[in-house]
Amino acid sequence: MVTLPGNNNILLRAEDLCKTFPLPEGNGVFTALKDVSVTVRNGEVVALLGRSGSGKSTLLRILAGLIPPSSGEVQSGNKAVRGPNPDVAMVFQSFALLPWLTVQENVELGLKARGMGREERRARALKAIDMVGLDGFESAYPKELSGGMKQRVGFARAFVVQPLVLFMDEPFSALDVLTAENLRGEIGDLWEAGTFPAKSILIVTHNIEEAVLLADRVIILGSNPGFVRGEVQIDLSRPRNRATPRFKALVDHIYTVMTNPAAKVAEAVTKVVEVAKPPTPQKAPPEQFPPLPHARAGGLSGLLELLVEQGGRDDLPMLADRLRLEVDDLLPIVDAAALLGFAKVAQGDVMVTPEGHAFATSTILESKEIFRQQVLDHAPLVTLIYQTLKEKNDGEMRADFFLDILDEHYPDEEAERQFGTAVDWGRYSELFEYDARSGWLWLPEVASGGPDE
Amino acid sequence: MLQPTFPPRDELQRPAFSLADIAVLLGTLALLYTFARIGTDMLVSFRPPDIIPGISLDPANLPYYAARSTLRMFVALLWSLTFTLTYGYLAAHSRHAEVILVPLLDILQSIPVLGFLSVTVNGFIALFPGSLLGLEFACIFAIFTGQAWNMTFSFYHSLKTLPRELDEAATLYRLPLWQRFTRLEVPTAMVGLIWNAMMSFGGGWFFIAASESISVLNQHYTLPGLGSYVAAAIAARDLRALGLALLTIGAVIVLIDQLFWKPLVAWADKFKIEQSSASEAPESWLLNMFRAAQLPQLIGEFLAPAGEALDKFLSRLALPLKTPSNTWVSSPWFDRFFNALLVFLTVGLLAGGIRFVVNEVGVGEVAYAALLGLATFGRVALLLGLGTLFWTPIGVAIGFNPRLARLAQPIAQFLASFPANFLFPFATIFFVRTGISLDWGSILLMSLGAQWYILFNTIAGAMSVPTDLREMAANLGLRGWRLWRDLIIPGIFPAWVTGGITASGGAWNASIVSEMVTWGNLTLTANGLGAYVALATAHADWPRIALGVGMMSLYVVGANRLFWRRLYTLAETKYRLT
Question: What is the pTM of this model?
């Protein structure tokens, strides 16, 4: 196989990667990744864990050579990566199968691209199909298969090219819970059996348990811009058992870290590697307009009511499991609750504050009053919109005005999401109204003397 | 590890050679024979004015004429496809080509091509002196101009909106450009491409009728075919021959639909990008027969190694791009130079064109053409309004009744692809007998072709209104005008806009043949831009052709920009039912 230079068995190395995207209308750039360094060594499973905005998928695509970094370099087998990285194969979240090719033709895709002969291609493909348990489905088309089987084809297509490092981009997140569990287990078994068709695995996920279950090292990424906060060694023996206290402790620890941007990655676990300081925040957002977590007022209220019923306190991993919510779905709501002073998060637990209790238990009108107060105190973007409208004589303003302000700090899509969340909160608290078609915001008639009385 | 899988049971039970195989074999042979026989006739010598092929009104010749016209249609389709793949590929993959090619396509699409027939006929005859091939090509080119633009836009659009992860998979597995094209890009575009080809193919019959028999420079040219048969029948005032020609064209349309488009659409169903199978896949008896037969499979197996070798060869010619991005990179200086050049060229061309027209015909003529354009514009608007008022209720009634819809949808599509100008003589007789002025009558002529787009789009729109919403409306007691205002009109709006755009484009093009019609030696003319262009074409009056066609393009582009595009945006944003 490939002889590796150096002695430390490093298959893939990225140093000081930065990725910036130009902001709309020449407003400078948005930084998605800042000074990210990652290595993948021979024989290990590395998980990249991060919340939305941490640029984990962007990082994976830079490592795969699908998009170029703005600065920094990726080395694969001591060669600088320019263009698609020949040493890796990727399993995609959406499977990325060509619907017009049969299972076998899909699996042969990468071999055909290399100009391999028909017979050899066929033999190798059949072997890979057999390995993922799809024997007998060679001539089926993807649309005849269930989601789990489609992803098996995705794995077979990656296996067959025998990559050095197998990349997985949230490979189980498009599957239902049981199917995902089943397939995850089988991939784990294959790895443990020692016959895995790749030397190492790099998996991107936002599922904490998945990371602890599969990985030897979990690299935790911070958000806005994406950076490496640190990494956690998973020193559990294989096959892994979720029921052990050590497993639970690791999951709890990572939850704590993920819900608390200021926490050090290392604290609760014994074995820890480097801890990175968050990079200096880009331009202004965190001071002037800290990003709003994308949670709807309704979801927030639902979560708080649930927590109050549970006695006002709950363990986050258990809550996520019970609600069947993944980190990216649950944490924004928890974040919003924390931002608005409705809840506190500590040690992987979430606790309702008195304000949160009042919000969850009062009538709709009262809870809107509470929500309005908290939003005005803690959500500067909503306050800015409200104040601007109040200062105008006619109490009206075009949405573009605020979008332009946001565009200076966020890429277009995120600016619109920020605005959307602000509008949702503003509407719910009856601070202002918005007509998406005309793009105008205005103060509601009744509220003109309202909230500040 | 390597177990051979058993073939499915029905494959084992299947006889080695079946009835289907015999049918496939005979069908293929018959097709080849017809093709060879008809094809050689295209090369017949032609020396005007001594030898010009004539047209005999004997009905026994009809199948032969039909075959000649059909062959022309398919040759044009082949050219359109070649053009589409090349042009669309370039436009999607080169940023610089895109800047020129896309707006150019937009302009080409809005130009009424019938106005250019005289130019092309002359050009092609000069290219192939002494052979009928020149005329053939002129006719094929006319059909081509009616087909290619739609297909190209569809292909370009598909290439620009490739599903991201499929694109990434192809890049990461380093497919050579050739494999990327054949395995990813063309298949992704296939469904849209076939659909657009089918619609434009239907429109092509219209051009057959208009371009097989044409007078340019006071010289009459005729190609053997259905279109010229109709022209001869009109000249001879032969109603019986006309009726027979109508029946023939109807039969040909149905045949081509059954033998070509239906199997193609059914086959292309596998190219739909959806992760689960559709509830109702399109079916075709011919395709089923092909799939049942062993012969095509055997031939496929036999040819597989050759195909493999060709694929390998072409793959090596076009290796994957080294840069991860799909578009070719270039320096900002070159960009600036390129843009400046583009602006310079555009301004120069425009100035030259305007100078030519103004010098040759004068400003007064331009104003006159603009006025005539207004008259034709009024006709198109009236046609759309009346067509909508008449067909929308009918289309909605059909669309809300699934069984009726399944019957009516193919009929409406048949009517849309039926060349309306085959019907013009009957309308002309009617106008002559009743004394109706063609100023009004031409609206009817234009609508003979255009209105069907409104009908079948309305049917499709009504079918797409979710049953839930209709039940809700019934539950709330919405009836009559309120039901229309609150549910039906918003519900069918996007479909109506699509139909309206197509109908108005068709009507503008049709105005060139609708505002001036003949019956024997009698010619009726309406006041309009279409008649202006038709007259200028017949006299080969270049400045007036340029002025007329330019003015018409201006009206079409103006209406698209000011009216249709806005409605389209509204339909896409506010009235989307998903």
Answer: 0.79
